[in-house]
What we know:
The chain contains ten helices and eight strands. α2 (38-48) packs across α6 and α4 packs parallel to α5. The chain is an alpha/beta fold. The longest helix is centred in the first third of the chain and has 21 residues, at 66-86. It has one domain: Vaccinia Virus protein VP39 (Rossmann fold, 3-Layer(aba) Sandwich). The relative contact order is 0.17. It has an eight-stranded mixed β-sheet with strand order 3-2-1-4-5-8-6-7. α6 (121-130) links the parallel β2 (113-117) and β3.
Amino acid sequence: MSPPGDLALRGTAIATDASTDALRPRLDGLADAVADVAAYLHAVEAARGALYLNAEGGDVGGAGTARALLRHVANYLAARDLGLRVARGATMVDVGSGTGALAAWVAAGLGARLHLVDRDPAVRAIATAAFPDVAVHAALSEVAPASAALVTGMEVVEHVAPREQLAFVRALFERVAPGGLLVVSTPDESGYLGGWSGYAPHIGPLDAPALEELLVRATGAQVRVWRFEGDAFHLGPVRRVVHPLANRAWTRCAPVVGPLAQRLARPAAALADRSRDVAGPALNPAVRVVPASAGAGTGLLGVVRAAG
């Protein structure tokens, strides 16, 4: 299966800010990464079947637009770049992993043993079928403390109730081995109308200061929070209003249409991509990494280093 969107993404140069900060990820090769993950998405597609769709977004290739896929790949590429510094041949744990395609791609690049953790049994069954050499868990408690050089939680903390987020991040950090890294991404929804995207599963959205405070309180370790700037992370004046209203409408309609919602989601995503191609320029894959206090991009990435 080819990734959604323009295959001309391959080979496009990615802009990054020069920095010597060891906790700053580089996104060089993002366009190639979008193409490279296609084989992993294909494995999930084959294991999933035509109708399954995870309502909480754990099936990255199931209904996402090219924009959504680019966002997810950027997060995991950042984790891969950081992991190459500490986790070659070690162990990686991805929590809230969904079907595991992007984590499996990262782990393959690191030569790392991969553990996936997701609470959805259907998602776990797909991950097990797609990636039989990966350890798949229902709960983080099944993973030994201090056992992983790299622990990732990509776009999952916003699915956790605010009162539970501190304990959640502490549990993540407890799995990080000495000298290892915890990498957490979350969308910054503060620019949307009402400060929320309207996507029902996002019950605990965080802006940059809140994410940094949470990571510092939960870990007591060295923390850096970065912001992703680029087309896929841009929130224009129309989208900031229309997106949350559309999500709220979908939340009301989905229980009524039931299984039909699953059938509609993928064609709707394809239509969104085609509409973009007709209405404007192709999606630009260039993404910059800047300090969280700079810019207005909607992607946040927190990096925590455990003491060695």
